[in-house]
Amino acid sequence: MSELNFRAPELSDRDWANELLAVSGYRGCIYTFGNNYVWQDVFNAQICRYHNFYLLKNTDHSDGMPRFLYPAGSGDIAEVITALKAYCAERGVPLLMTANKECTEQLCAMYPEVSAVPDRDGFDYVYNSSDLAELKGRKYHSKRNHLNRFYENHWLFEPITAANIPDCKAVLEQWLNSGDLDPDKGIEADVVMKSLDNYAALGYIGGVLYVNGEPQAFTFGEQSAEDTFVVHAEKALLNYQGAYTAINCEFVKTIAERYRYINREEDTGSEGLRKAKLSYHPAFMEEKYFITFGGLS
């Protein structure tokens, strides 16, 4: 019988989970407890503590196949892989995993039967915080123009607190109801709302942007690696030119001295998102790979 007991993450898991996640120091957005908690219903996410490792399992709703995140923590990784193989063998499925480039190379060296395929749509965009805070140089000329148009307004930036979370929810509702409502937009809105409902408990950090006293944009996220902050959400209304540029810039200014890098997550294969994320000139991509172990044991 497998030693692994996966279950839905609960807010009470945050402390031990963050402790083990911090040990590995991975920069990927998926290596954050808040991300795993708020998306659990969408990806059927479950977690498990195995010795000093944090394990995450997502299950594909279409075929019921589980996929595991490369374990975070400390100890004998081969022992964890053996336990995961046994867990999958009991269920008659292959061991499937997601890993960053470094961990993928390690797995391929340890297990000759492993096959690895890059998940380009899942690559995280990681930026120098100084670039996003200052927008210096010719490559950010158009961004500065948008920012300057926004700064012509009577604006105010505030950190997110319990007092202004209702303002964030108001922006979210207006964002949701603008344009065409597709299922993915509704799912994302539900996840962001769950994040705001549990903002303090998840230890998030963020900010709200106002124009003439009315909320126009907000953003928030959490730390992954010691030098990296992950932006989980950024929403802005289109009432004022440059609102998205401004909320990004003003928030990063508040954390740039603490974090060298800002991870703005993946583009999920959206051409529009990919163009927007590339326009901010990432310092590097946090690559992710789909790993398949041969056999069932």
Can you walk me through this structure?
The chain has 297 residues and is an alpha+beta fold. The protein contains eleven helices and 14 strands. It has two domains: 11-123 and 287-292, Aminopeptidase; 125-265, Gcn5-related N-acetyltransferase (GNAT) (Aminopeptidase), CATH 3.40.630. It has helices at residues 14-24, 33-38, 40-43, 77-90, 101-110, 129-134, 141-151, 165-177, 183-197, 243-255, 271-278, and strands at residues 46-50, 53-59, 66-69, 72-73, 96-100, 115-118, 124-128, 155-159, 205-211, 214-223, 228-236, 261-263, 284-286, 288-292. Strands 1, 2, 3, 4, 5, 6 and 14 form a seven-stranded mixed β-sheet that branches. Strands 8-9-10-11-12-7-13 form a seven-stranded mixed β-sheet. The longest helix has 15 residues, at 183-197. The mean pLDDT is 96.
What is the strand and helix layout of this fold?
Elements: H1 14-24, H2 33-38, H3 40-43, E1 46-50, E2 53-59, E3 66-69, E4 72-73, H4 77-90, E5 96-100, H5 101-110, E6 115-118, E7 124-128, H6 129-134, H7 141-151, E8 155-159, H8 165-177, H9 183-197, E9 205-211, E10 214-223, E11 228-236, H10 243-255, E12 261-263, H11 271-278, E13 284-286, E14 288-292
Parallel strand pairs: 3-5, 11-12
Antiparallel strand pairs: 1-2, 2-3, 2-4, 5-14, 6-14, 7-12, 7-13, 8-9, 9-10, 10-11
